Every structure is written in structure tokens, then in C-alpha cells.
Amino acid sequence: MKTITILAAVMSVSSVASAGTMLTTWGEKVTSENAWRDYPRPQMVRQNWTNLNGDWDYAVTSVTNTPGRPEQWNGKIRVPFCIESALSGVGRLLEPDEFLWYTRKISCDPKPGERILLHFGGVDFRTMVFIGHDEVTDVPHEGGQNPFTLDITDFVKKGENELTVCVWDPTERFINSRGKQCFKPHGCFYTRVSGIWQTVWMETVPEKYIRSYKVVADIDKGEVTLNFQGTGNGECGTVEIENPASSAPLREKFIPGEPCTVKLPKPVELWSPENPKLYNFTAKYGKDEIKGYFGMRKFEKRADAKGILRFFLNNEPYYVMGTLDQGWWPDGLLTPPSEEAMAFDIKTLKDCGFNTMRKHIKVEPFRYYALCDRMGLLVIQDLPSGNGNAVDPIGVGVVPRYGLQRQEMKEMMDVLQTFPSIVMWNPYNEGWSQPGEFLTHSMLDFVRRYDRTRLVNGPSGWWDWEGGHLLPNGWDWNRRVLTNHRPEGECEAADTVDLHLYRGPDMLAVNPRRISFLGEFGGLGHPVEGHLWKEAKGSWGYGGISDTKNREGLEKAYLGLMKKLGDLAEKGLGGSIYTQTTDVEIEINGLLTYDRKVLKYNPEVLKAAHEAVIKRAK
Known about the structure:
The chain is of the alpha+beta class. The strands form ten sheets. Strands 32-31-30-29-28-37-36-35 form an eight-stranded parallel beta sheet, with helices on one face. Strands 2, 3, 4, 7, 8, 9 and 11 form a seven-stranded antiparallel beta sheet that branches. A four-stranded antiparallel beta sheet has the order 1-15-5-10, with no helix packed on it.
């Protein structure tokens, strides 16, 4: 084999803590032995599994002169943290003309009647996987946000096997789901993420096994419908659901691919942020057994007693009080340092009186959504955006990528469908990667038809041809143009008209077609000395920082926004999303600093202000 050019790394795993990188409290405790050890799919748990996180060998090679897999390696990288992150132990940027390689040994014990599955929670962007010399990806997986699974049974031998992964990540060009990654962090764009950034794991299953399931809860009938997808020849399985009224579980047979409806005993306990009740179940199909859960909740668009369209949760009007949540971390970037760290962010929002987060252009690890389910927080889930915008959908390649965009949207909805905390999908943000009027409508309409258990937002801010705003004069939102709703009887694909306004707040007019929603506002900047990212030169906030540089000014400005927000809620505003949960790189408009070590507000003051807004919406 020819000699392969190996490009040098910046740091080793052991040197990361001394590099002066901003670390969170949880990041300071991360080691290769404790990095993300819990079962990664809490809504479908099996017992026979192997965690592959920890130290792997890695190499970076040139795309143009790489004849094959490396024979030499740069050093160790800590999976599941991306190569650009401090917690990976490498901390170097991957360029578009480079391949990133990983390798490690795995131990397998293939047996007749069993399959060995290899799972990747997230790899950015194009992934090829090898066992020994053999590539096990028939088609390289593309997409940086969604998980994927490979059946490696026919490629492994008993004992030790060599697992190799090759990743290419152009970051900005070609791909759809890059979110806020960019080559040079600036403004609201952040350090890029390449390679493995979520848990890698194996599990052994019988040849006949459950692949996935979907949930439809009907709180009015007191029923839940589970639809299990599995391999095999249509034989029956059994699902047992916990029965709060008895020690004996509810038991029902199912056939994979066919709906299985179970009547729950009264009173049915409903899921909400105020009462996050979950029903646990065990499903058995042949020799396969999984444990999962579901929540009984209904989230819909409905007119209130005054005839104003609002969000309704479990048949009651519900004001959505949330934050924009980027999900970025100074030490792990897209990868949270630990589950405890994720829980801290969620608890902070609840302590401050929020009931919702808008998960902005990122798909989190499954365990994140499970925490929202258990702790009680509504989630509005964005599809991570790609390059380009509605101003020039052809020139920037948005229209050519539309098929990939739809594919990633469908994949995301499929893998997140079982989480009751997710109540609304958001396919488009501010025209980013919007492909024009017809295709935008088609995407929104597809999402609504595909998942009728949730609402469809948007487009979120600007470029809404159906009763929202357009920006025909470039990106000057001060010159935005209001569009007309479609005639009665014609389809409008979304459930909300969504305004973005900094500082705001304000609202689009109450209308009979869609809920008036404030998808982004606020953004009050406040620097906290000693907790700024790389000294945060050029630090800024969406809503400015001139009058919020000290804590007193910050609180005064925030409470002023809440007073105005209450007026709007009284007039019919259905919900609002404040920017944002944490500082991110040079953005300093978070409730928390980027390292999560300082909460800039008194949570009791915020909670009281939020409760006052919610009260005025009723």
C-alpha cells in the first residue's frame, strides 16, 4: 500500500484540561472511561448491548492523495466528542479537503439465530464504515444530525474485529443539516462539528426483533395505539403496560406493522410540564424484549372562549413560554458533556418558570428528549438548516437539496416520534434553506400530514407567503411586507404565523387560520467577566447591550419585555420564545453564561413575571 499523508493533531487526550479551554463543571469531570456510558435509546431499551465510547485511534488524511485506510494513526480521540471539541482530546478543525478516520477493536460473538447491530447516534457528515477490509455501508450515510444503524452480523468473526470509520465533512457546501456550523465563527454562527458526536454502540438481537414503534395517544377515548415495526413473518407479539390501578399490567397482543390499541383504566393520567406522567411498557416479540414508555397528551390548535386561536394542551388553553435553545457547549460543542449537564439546563428553565424550549437547528441525543419527558418541558423541534435562503433558492443550491431536506425531515420525525415532550415541528427558520413558495408549502404540508399528533410551526420568522412576512428587500426586516392569508377553503400548511422581532415583543394579527406566535424576541446582552468565550471579542446580543451591562439594567429591561408580552398575550398571542437559554461563543444574550456557571437572573423574579404573562393569556 502507498504511504498515506497523515496530518498532525493539535492536542492529545491527556492535554485537553491544560489547554485553557472554557470547561463546564461537568466537562472537567469527563474521562475516557466515563464518557456517555448510559443506554442511549431510553424509549426502547434492551439488555444485551455494548458501549463503544472512549478512546479510539484517529487519523486525518488528505482527500486527494489517500489511497486507502491509514496504516499509521495520529493518536487517540475520545468518542463521542467531535474532533474540534476540547473534550475529544484533539481540538483541531477538520477541513473540507480532509478525511477523518477512526479505528478500534470490537469483540463479537456471532451465533445462529442472532443479529449484531451497530448504532451511530450522530456522525457529521458522510460516513463509511468498515469491518476489517469490508465496507459494511452499502451506501455511505449522509446527514450529520440523524442516527443510523448497520447490521454487521455477516461481516464479523468470533473474537476480535477491527472497526474503522471514515468521515468527510464539507461543513458549509453541499450538505443540508449543518445548523449554525461555519468555518469562521461569527455572529450567530459557531465552531463547526465534524465526525462522531453521539454515542456509538452495539447490541445483539434475535433474527426476529422489534425495529421501532410509534405512539398515538387519544386522551378523549382514554386509549393508546402502539404500532411496532419488526422483522419476521407477521407472528404475534405481546405488550404489557403498567396499570396504575393494579399490580397486574394491561396485556395486549400485536402484529408488527398493524396498530395495537389499548384501553387505559380510568382515570387516565395525562402528561404535561406540570405533571409529566409516563406509562412504562414491555414488548415481547419472539425472543426479543424491549422496554419503553409513552405519555398521554394532546397538543392542538383550537379557538378559545373568545374565538381566538390558541395552543391547547389536553383540552385546555396553554400559553407557550419558552426559550430558544442552541444546545451548544464550550467543551463539547454539539455534544453535551454529560446527562447531568443536560438535566441542569432543563431544570434551570423550569426553575425560571418556562414550560417550553425551541430546540434550535439541532437534534439532541435521545436521552435529552427523555429528560424533557420525565422532567416536564415542551419541545418545539427545528429541522437543522442548510446553506442558502429564499432570496436565491437556485443560486445557492437550496432547490437541488430539497430531496435531502425532505428525507432528513422525515428521518428526524421518525426517530423522535415517541417522545411526548415534542409538540411541534419547525421545518424552516428565517428563510434559511427555504426553496421558494411552492416547495416551502409542500414541505409544511407533508409534515402536517405525516405526523398528525403534533402541530407545524412556521416558517419561523420571515418568508411566509400565507399570512406572515416576506423580506423582498434583502434581509432588512424593518422593510418586511405582510402577506395575505389564502382564501377560505384553500390549504394553509402551517398552524402558526410566526414573528421574529428583537427586542420586541410584538405579534402578527390574530386571524382565523393560524395561531399568532412570537418565535424569537428579546436577546438582551449581558457580559459576565471571567465567563466569556475566548475573551469574547465582539460579544453581542440580538437585543443590544447598551442598557443591560449591569444586573439591575438587565432585570429592568427583561421585566419591561414581560409587561409588554402580557399585553400581547391578553390580545391573543399564543406563545413566545425568548432568546436564549445560554450564551454561545460571542453571543452573550443567554440566561446562563456559556459555561453554565452563572445564572444572570433571579429565577424567582423570572418565574413570577412569566406566571403573570400566562395568567393574562387566559
